[in-house]
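HUMAN: Please help interpret these tokens:
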Amino acid sequence: MSEILRMLNVGYTLIWRANRLERALDGLPADFEWVVPEHPEGDVRRGPEGVAEFFREWTEPFDDLEVEWDLHEAGPDRALALIRMRGRGHESGVPVEMQFGQLWTFRDGAAIRMVVYNDLDEARRAAGLE
């Protein structure tokens, strides 16, 4: 496993298995970009604080979230995470399942950008992994 994939795996594990979001985001640069196209609150969040705020807003409506991820190298400085989330609505109790891709870009071993793709095929194409 490459260093980039190892770092991502540790981060996802801290967030989704250990409930240590802030620890997972430690070391993200202040100019890190978390890009979620067409998000009602804006497409880009910056730095660890912006990412933490996004996570809290995004997960708050759900209970019993289970998250699985599959990591793929997409070149020397990029990686694709294919994510599957299952849970239920906090208020409604309705089961929810989502799948999406996250294309990560690194520079000098540090994450500088992540872009969400709601379509897994589009994520694979963007990563050059068709």
User: Anything to note?
Assistant: The chain is about 30% helix and 40% strand. Residues 3-127 form a domain with the Nuclear Transport Factor 2; Chain: A, fold (CATH 3.10.450.50). The chain has a mean pLDDT of 94.
